[in-house]
Amino acid sequence: MIAAAAENNALGANNDLLWHLPDDFKRFKQITSGHKIIMGRKTFESFPKPLPNRTHIIITRDKNYTVSHSTCIVIHSLEEAIDLVRNEAVSFIIGGGEIYKQGAKFANKIELTRVHASFENADTFFPEIDESEWQLENEQYHPKDERHKYDFTYLTYVKKQRK
Hints:
Blueprint: E1 2-6, E2 10-13, E3 16-17, H1 22-32, E4 36-40, H2 41-45, E5 55-59, E6 72-75, H3 78-85, E7 91-95, H4 97-103, E8 109-115, E9 124-125, E10 134-142, E11 152-159
Parallel strand pairs: 1-8, 4-5, 4-7, 5-6
Antiparallel strand pairs: 2-3, 2-9, 8-11, 10-11
Protein name: Dihydrofolate reductase
GO molecular function: dihydrofolate reductase activity; NADP binding
Keywords: NADP, One-carbon metabolism, Oxidoreductase
């Protein structure tokens, strides 16, 4: 899973992000390029156009929903999406809130950008990370600057091995 979430786990409001962090966008592009990305319909529709160099797997309950773009596959459950990426070395769940919640049990890694602010106007949230299941493997702090209104930290979690 890859996400950017505030201190209160806010992801967005009205199908839009609550912040603009160019370095985080650059990191997202670098990490996900060349891979399959799994998302809900609303997340897909928040993009102006499909993201380049990625296969989009779009989950919707709407059996009549179609996207006429060669890099997009429309399916109707997260389980179907997981089946489509089962043989991939790497793939990413990219949102939104409900897809992250359902996807946590399938994920083995979380690339989380923790935005150091809270947003009370949010309507979509990232699930709590259960530290009994996830081990923080790496963190890298990025202070706010002229291009970034908020401080943020890149956090990499890996799922702990069951004993």
